[in-house]
Design a protein that fits this description.
By secondary structure, this protein is an alpha/beta fold. The chain has two domains: about 130 residues, Rossmann fold, CATH 3.40.50.2000; about 170 residues, Glycogen Phosphorylase B (Rossmann fold). Helices cover about 35% and strands about 15% of the residues. The strands form two sheets. A six-stranded parallel beta sheet has the order 8-7-6-9-10-11. A five-stranded parallel beta sheet has the order 3-2-1-4-5, sandwiched between helices. Strand 9, helix 11 and strand 10 form a beta-alpha-beta unit. The longest helix has 16 residues. It is globular.
């Protein structure tokens, strides 16, 4: 039997599909499991040992469909469920299933603040899409596989951070999912331990501002928070390696949060304009939610914005950090 899984974005969403990949491969004898995604996410999926082949949407949709037709799939598990993935399923003309996106329920929660979302994690909805094949949740959580060449050796880190550091993923695709810099500094001061800041090149400046603040504090003997700004210095898999070796992980609602869950880390997950009730909180790992409850404007989006639509950004400015105990 040959099965195709469809998921074209993003980092976190693809990590959340990994239980489906694993249970298909381990529970169906002789199955061949393929995956279709975008080239931008090759690092997340390419070395997954439960996959037999990965196909990339690097050109036109027709070219990808032509490539997929040659594989003669028996079944398609659509874990994206958008127009593109529906077209692929239609043009392949083979049996399949998709997961429920719950768009009406999400709309009600975001626009009318009426919560009709089922208390079911999106991973379990993904798995349900494959259950017609006779598989079931194995309870083993998420997977993330790091190529050997991307493992970061602990002795390459500053002496202050080996071992026993806290990882803080300060980035997020949308500004309304990120703490203001002043609040990141406040939270880092409360952590009061060696911290590695993780993020992309776009987060380098923020990381430098945070690092310089704590350099001044250390000079004045005002605390033990020591910052290593790793933003922009490591690729995704190397950042995942640093997450794996951390004692505790702080993260916004973003991809590295799910990577941390794959390594069963204790996570402090930080929520601004989005909410855990949308079903994408850390999966099968210990976590604490940091959020500002009972705001009439929250959630304002299921994704995020460049700036707070209400101009006050209370969902981030008013989060209580008092329950952070590291």
């Amino acid at each position: 039997m040959k099965i195709l899984i469809l998921r074209f974005s993003s980092i976190g969403d693809i990590v959340l599909t990994t239980p489906v990949i694993r249970i298909l491969k381990k529970q169906l004898p002789g199955v061949s499991v393929h995956y279709a995604t975008k080239p931008a996410f090759k690092a997340v999926i390419a070395v997954n040992p439960y996959l037999d082949k990965v196909h990339y949407l690097s050109g036109s949709l027709s070219a990808l469909v032509d490539e997929l037709r040659k594989e003669k799939f028996d079944y398609v598990v659509d874990l994206h469920h958008n127009l593109r993935s529906r077209l692929i399923r239609f043009r392949l003309g083979v049996p399949g299933a998709s997961f429920p996106k719950l768009n009406i329920q999400k709309w009600l929660l975001v626009n009318l603040k009426i919560n009709k979302m089922p208390p079911v994690h999106i991973v379990d909805r993904y798995i349900a899409a494959a259950q017609k094949l006779g598989v079931k949740n194995d309870g083993a959580g998420l997977d993330y596989f790091i190529p050997a060449e991307d493992e970061v050796e602990i002795d390459t880190l500053p002496a202050t951070h080996r071992p026993g550091y806290v990882a803080f993923a300060i980035g997020a695709q949308h500004a309304t999912k990120r703490l203001p810099t002043e609040r990141i500094i406040e939270l880092c001061a409360r952590i009061n331990r060696p911290i590695i800041l993780l993020g992309g090149k776009e987060d380098v400046g923020t990381g430098e501002e945070i690092s310089k603040y704590f350099e001044r504090r250390i000079t004045n003997n005002e605390g033990r928070t020591t910052i290593y700004n790793a933003c922009g210095k490591y690729n995704l898999n190397q950042s995942a390696s640093l997450v794996r070796q951390a004692e505790v992980v702080f993260s916004h609602d973003t991809g590295l949060m799910h990577v941390a869950a794959a390594f069963r880390k204790k996570i402090y997950s930080i929520w601004g304009n989005t909410v855990p009730e949308l079903g994408m909180y850390p999966y099968q790992t210990e976590f604490e939610v940091l959020e500002r409850n009972n705001l009439p404007c929250r959630p304002c989006s299921k994704i995020g914005y460049k700036a707070c639509p209400q101009k006050h950004f209370k969902c981030m400015w008013e989060i209580d950090f008092s329950k952070v105990q590291v």
